[in-house]
Amino acid sequence: MQIKISKMNIDDLNKISPVLLTEFDDFWNYNIFKSELENENSKYVVAKNNDEIVGFAGIWISIDEAHVTNIVTKKDLRKNGIGSILLEELINLSKTLNLVSITLEVNENNLDAIKLYEKFGFEKLGIRKKYYNNTDNALIMTKKLN
Q: CA geometry: angle at 51 spanning 46 and 54, to 5°?
């Protein structure tokens, strides 16, 4: 697999739109995603293998901090390192923008994602109770970018 990362644009969204809810995760619909791409405080990247979109990730920028909105890979391609590549890209993008930290929430039951974030130096800050579907807790994790 030859993964290339680029800035995500509306053409990329249109390309994955038919499979957004089935081959990725069903947490955002097309219109929400489109407004994210149009928001000047949002930055999104896309991972492509050849010309196929295999993942995407984004951050919101608030003053001098980044907040990870999502890191998603195609369901059938998970555990192939795409998430690591996307996370590294978000960290590098945040550093380029001179941000001081990058923060995220992750379901406390998503042990694979937690391990990934810890591998990149994220530390647990706290918990948001019943954050996901009013049942699962979210861990708040952050990384300083000095």
A: 45
